[in-house]
Amino acid sequence: METETLDQPAQEPLPEQAAAATVSDTQAIEFCKNSYARIQYELSKVIVGQADVVQEILIAIFTRSHALLVGVPGLAKTLLISTLAETLQMSFRRIQFTPDLMPSDITGTEVIYQDPASGLKEFKFLPGPLFSNVVLADEINRTPPKTQAAMLEAMQERRVTVGGTTRDLPKPFFVLATQNPLEQEGTYPLPEAQLDRFMFLINVDYPSEEEELMIMKMGTGMKGEKPQPVLTGEHVMFIQETVKTIPVPDHVYRYAEKIVRGSRPKTPQAFDFCKKWLSFGAGPRASLSLIMAAKAHALISGQTYVGCENVAAIALAVMRHRIAINFTAQSEGITADDVVRKILETVPQTEPLA
Fold it and tell me: What is the Cα–Cα distance from 312 to 259, expressed in whole angstroms?
């Protein structure tokens, strides 16, 4: 059975001088843009639709960040992440979070090892599933706070501490977590401090009518094409360094600043509707995420600079989990997304006159 996929983009290899950082800016931007298109193409062999979700996940990866995917069961969140790991040629581990999961189950543990030749006994560290490049934290809100704390250290510090010894996690390292928004009984809601560590909160929605029909055909027919590897860990780190070099004009910094500061209800810069609907607004990490994500968004679009439109394009995923609506908003049926959209409508994108 034939399946619809994106047109295959040109497969341009990474310039040989990339490791030595002697590639021109034009070459680097073109490589990043083509790599993004190739990954989209390979994922389309298995994943139907979800182009925006794929884009936001890749932006998180290209900015050395983490992402939280929220959606009802059956929307291929796990399949998407595992397939993505294949296209990136990086080690992948899936952790199914449960209420009885302990920190040592994810970080690893020390065991007594006896050398068969000498008979001497010593402690030997057995690494846990966190020692992978891509970690899928499935239903992350189902594990207790003690394990959440271990995951938080790994996400923020990119290292774990076991038996008094701190061990670095492999590079690159990403946590792509999933969460079911429907079934909340017996769960441990993520604390704001941990939510803030995720650059994006990505809402995975139902497929369209045409997409669902294609899913039915692909899932019940002959096995389709197998996604091919596109990048390696070295390539991903090269893209991460390229993202940092994309210039940002001052008016774009100010645009992002107004979005974040306008969301803080107890400050003079807050918008009136934020004072009415929010109990607290986004912190400085949101400002950083807006700029870094906008850089990556511009890069995969082939741009040589960041514009306000790039910030606006990723603002929802950056902001929606960093603001808290109050009872007034809930009673009026206002969601966090509604507030962010209104902020974007209020803050002008035009460059101020000199």
Answer: 9
